[in-house]
Amino acid sequence: MRVFRKWVLAIALFVALILDGTLAFYLHQFMNIGAYGASTWILPIGIMLIGLFDDTNPNEIWLALGAGIVADISTLGIIGVYTVFFPVSCWACQRVARFLPEIFWSRLIVVIIGVTILDIYSWAILTMVGIISVSIKIMLISLAVNACWTIIFFSITYWIWGNLAENYPFLIDLRAYR
Amino acid sequence: MKKFLQNKKLLTTFIVIFLILVILGGSVNLRNKRNTPLLVQSFGNDVVAVGSRIVDIPVGWISGGLNNVNDILNTQTENNHLKSQVTNLGQTKARNQALEAENKQLRSALKLKDTLTGYDLINASVISRSSDTWSDLLVINKGSSAGVQKNQAVMCGGGVIGRIIEVNAASSKVELITTTDKSANRFAVQATASNGKSVHGIITVNSDNNLAFTQVVDSRKLKQGTKVYTSGMGGNSPKGLLVGTVSKTTRDSFGLSDLIKINPAGEINDPSVVTVIKRKVAN
């Protein structure tokens, strides 16, 4: 069971990846207003929160890289969007967490900024490779819709990710220290 | 140059960015060219698809329950509408049977085997959707083991909603017809003008994310409400699949060709059960 405890966070991220797809399918009608829409990003929110809650574990950056590769392959079919953003955002959040107050609101602001960057980054990459052709106007308005949905997903999952990151750090057995 | 090579941080950053661009370019190339994804990718997709099916069960129950309540509230209106349709249904059915029998006889007389209108159906359920708002992708629970192939047309709610872009063993990805992907295969379509002639073109997506019937030589005779079908000319999909109806005809921004807006016939926003269309005639 000790081995299992070390991998709880990885399993949780896999479940988050699946939930992203399922909720995107069921909530799509509510998350889109005309041509503008929001993304279901429980997984990116989770990765950023893990970085904010546990700023000492470098293994989590590798976990974010793995999650990024799986997410890229299973959703977009190209490698380079989540594979880059997840480890970079996890590393950045770990750095920010060192001077950031450990409260809900400060973390919410960091996550909203992170998700907005991810939105712009994914739009830029997908436009560059020709997979999408969405105007800047639509992209900018979608950012606002996305920020609103991010607040909802963040509020629902905040305590879950906090608990997981603090009690089940990736590839670290806390019992060894007790 | 010497300074750049001696600065390890800068050099590492440069190499990492270069590697990312190479991997990105390579994976985009693979996505567009290969008929089936790499074995690792296919396996990964199927593992995620299995997980999606498990998670889909409880979420589907909740969503289904809410939809049932909505259905009960709309029952009376729906019933009145269906009653008016039923009176015509018997006559249409009898006429279809007679035409089908006649068609069969004429085909055998002409010794025709498969035509562009012939196709088989594969029914599938949608298990997830791409989580980002930019790409219009669905994942369905049927793959190559059920006979699904890349580029086959997908229908839902009586109209075409997209095309298969990636096939794994037990799951496939569907790119919706509303996609703005520049490299996506477009549906070759046709409509019958008011003077009885067929008008040919392709389906594209315009800047405000609406479907458009483009590359049309003369659209002036296409009235609002004209049905647009696949022509089967572009390969991949058979002839006669309903794509949508003409809603408005305008000129493009250069004033050179006609741009016809289409109301999609298929259920694009909430497709839970879809049908993959397997064309009988080889491409």
List keywords for this structure.
heterodimer; A: 178 residues; mainly alpha; two-stranded antiparallel ribbon; 7 helices; globular; B: 283 residues; alpha+beta; six-stranded antiparallel beta barrel; membrane (chain A); transmembrane helix (chain A)
In short:
Chain A is mainly alpha-helical. Helices cover 74% and strands 2% of the residues of chain A. Chain A has one domain (2-25, 39-173).
If you had to describe this structure to a student in words, what would you say it looks like?
The complex is a heterodimer of chains A (178) and B (283). Chain A has 178 residues and is mostly helical. Chain A has one domain. Chain A has seven helices and two strands. In chain A, a hairpin with a 2-residue loop joins strand 1 and strand 2. The radius of gyration of chain A is 16 Å and the shape is globular. The mean pLDDT of chain A is 90. Chain B is of the alpha+beta class and 283 residues long. Chain B has a domain of 32 residues. Chain B is 36% helix and 28% strand. Chain B is built from three helices and twelve strands. In chain B, a hairpin with a 6-residue loop joins strand 10 and strand 11. Chain B is globular. In chain B, 35% of the residues are buried. The model of chain B has no long low-confidence stretch (mean pLDDT 84).
